[in-house]
Amino acid sequence: MSLHAFVDESRRNNTYLLAAAVVQPRELTKLRKLLNGLRMPNQRELHFKKETPGRRKQILSALVRTSVQVDLYLACCRKGEERARQACVARLTGDLLDVGAGRLVLDSREARDEHDLLTIRTSLGKYARGTGLVYEHLPSEGDPLLWIPDIIAWCYGAGDDWLRRAQPLIGKVVDTRKP
Fold this sequence. Notes:
This protein is of the alpha/beta class and about 180 residues long. The chain has helices at about 30-35, 55-65, 80-100, 115-125, 145-160, 160-165, and strands spanning about 5-10, 15-25, 70-75, 105, 135-140, 170-175.
């Protein structure tokens, strides 16, 4: 059974954060059900920036009781946000191949999705044989599992108590700014 990764981003000042929720296939349905159950009536998606502090605490508490892990990739935006993102996407792609991931789902940025696709294809091209990694972009309401990296990226960027609350869900933090 290969892992699935769901990816979203956040930006805080000159730091670009790419968050990847890594999910075991046996956990997919359970997590989707949990996340859908956390929506308010008529709410299409969870978007942490738009939630009240009380709702944020409720949502985060529910997620902490799961086995999901979110890896974070950091980059400097001083030379452009897109450049920072692609440094993170390239590193993430290599890391996913190292753990045998089978699916990568990124939150769509519409016309800018092409940049990700080029970076992923370039990263995959370094491997002599096919990797079996399937990748796609979906709108955030297209899969509730895209809400998890949004939540953790927001908490990491907010720092302080939010970072402390999210800490049990955070896996590795890869800082591409450091050699």
